[in-house]
């Protein structure tokens, strides 16, 4: 997705930070216990392995209030652990309108999330809101394991999307 790269470049120039600008990314799903925390911690892992932690600030949030304060869902936690990625201490939080100003890129997992993100933010005048799969060769939604139970399919979607974001920003 070329729009994300343009946005970061624009924001860095506007802040006067040149190439040293911190990229602030928020991943969002319905409950913030499966897909968006998986994306948060996969992205953090990619950034850490590249030695670029100082360049990124990464979080995740929910569009709903259903799971606020709950930890990452155990099967999602196990799937991350299979790949050597921890998520200890993460609890679900709801996205707020203020997040629109705090983050440079706000990445939803599916089209329903996108509608709710736009509602919460009061629109998307700066073009910050997008879908994770927009950063891959195929568009669409990240498989929702809450309904399918298929955390492997979700893992593949999240990994591919996060790799796409990372590649577009480096």
Produce a short descriptive summary.
This protein has 170 residues and is of the alpha/beta class. Helix content is 45%, strand content 12%.
Order of helices and strands: HEHEHHEHEHH
In helices, the fraction of residues equals 40-55%
Binned strand content: 5-15%
Please work out how many helical segments DSSP would assign: 7
Major beta sheet, strand line-up: 2-1-3-4
What is the residue-mean pLDDT, rounded to a whole number? 90
Low-pLDDT parts are 1-11, 13-19
- Gap from first CA to last CA: 13 Å
Tell me how many strands there are: 4
Provide the structure class.
Answer: alpha/beta
* Biggest pleated-sheet summary: 4 strands, parallel
Radius of gyration over all CA atoms, rounded:
15 Å
Principal-axes shape call: globular
């Amino acid at each position: 997705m070329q729009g994300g790269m343009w946005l970061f470049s624009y924001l860095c120039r506007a802040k006067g930070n040149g190439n040293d600008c911190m990229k602030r990314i928020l991943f969002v799903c319905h409950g913030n216990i499966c897909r968006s925390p998986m994306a948060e911690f996969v992205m953090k892992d990619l950034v850490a392995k590249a030695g670029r932690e100082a360049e990124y600030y990464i979080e995740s949030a929910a569009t709903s209030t259903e799971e606020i304060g709950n930890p990452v869902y155990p099967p999602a936690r196990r799937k991350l652990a299979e790949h050597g990625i921890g998520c200890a201490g993460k609890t679900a939080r709801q996205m707020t309108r203020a997040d629109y100003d705090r983050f440079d890129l706000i990445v939803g997992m599916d089209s329903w999330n996108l509608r709710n993100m736009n509602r919460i933010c009061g629109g998307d005048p700066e073009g910050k809101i997008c879908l994770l799969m927009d950063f891959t060769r195929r568009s669409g939604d990240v498989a929702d394991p809450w309904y399918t139970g298929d955390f492997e399919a979700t893992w593949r979607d999240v990994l591919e999307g996060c790799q796409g974001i990372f590649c577009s920003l480096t």
